[in-house]
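New here. Invent one.

***
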Amino acid sequence: MAGKPTSAPGTGILLVTANVGSLFEDPENLQKTWLREFYQTVNSHKPHFLALHCQEVGGKNYEESMTHVDSFVKELLSSDAMKEYNRARVYLDENYKSKEHFTALGSCYFIHESLKNIHHFDFKAKKFKKVLGKEIYSDTLESTPMLEKEKFPQDYFPECKWSRKGFIRTRWLLADCAFDLVNIHLFHDASNLVAWEKSPSVYSGTRQKALGYVLDRITDQRNEKVPYFLFGDFNFRLDSKQVIESLCSSATMQTVRATDTNEVDKVIFREMDNDRKVVLQLEKKLFSYVNQNVFRDNNGTPLLEFDKELSVFKERLHELEISFPPSYPYSEDHNEGKQYMNTRCPAWCDRILMSASAKDLVAKPDGEDKSISYDNIGPNVCMGDHKPVFLSFRITTGTGKPNANKHKCCVLQ
């Protein structure tokens, strides 16, 4: 099914990010659909090198669900759709008993048989090593020299409570070009009521701090600086205060307080006339807006003006133009492919970002390269609460020079 990569010039790269937690809550209904859509994307773009970054591996009930993870990975490695990818590296953080290390991240890399020369960096030996065969690493990734894995420092976590947030970094050398791939999962919004109290929200500040930490770590002096791609679940949200003010500009607001604590428990926005119809009801884990089409029409892109969290990093991180709907929170009902859950304001949580030097690898100066695609997977079917997001592009041999030339001295065949 995958077929041979196209004969277009350059090396085809496909980067995919997917928060796969839902797949392990309801594997019977979701995994087959998810894999079918994933394979179709691979077949459509026919990459030489495929990187799949997963978050929430094992789902919320990971103690019971890790067996489903193993079967999911085995299917990926042995399916007919992937049979021409004869080399693979799979890194799964499954060691949930270690609270200070567990991130539930999974980084999977597949190399097509037609790609003759690809090397993977050993961070301990400071050498690139040729990739041969298929290998799976799990449990204690801390001792695996082919990656760097970190959980954020505990004081970064809201209320200093451990959750599965951190990053995994790998480094690759192909087509004379070295680059880093970073799988990342940042902090979510714990309460819609807190998120809309001020602009920007307290949660966006926590994410900003953690993302800055990652950028500093992957560009420090320990290793040679190379172009980098960060893709994962950034949990970026629309500016809640501003988007609610926009959606409810002509509505009146009613605040409901809890009888025992007198804290705000619910906020209800009603139309001034029209029988005072409810426009939006907001609770800690409820965001029920009267017209979900706002988030789907024109792929929701008019709402991108409220997507502001990346702007803080505009000198360090770049992104191609978004032309797909918010990637979260979709219904987990396998019969509903386009419906959002009424739990959070839909947002572009799942992203593929890059350094300026990485963007130079992707975007050609004339802007005419039709092989570049930044989109979601499975737009019309249920893929879980997150739609996977992908970036497909081609690297022309020599594009990374002089980037790669200085690495050739440290390649182990």
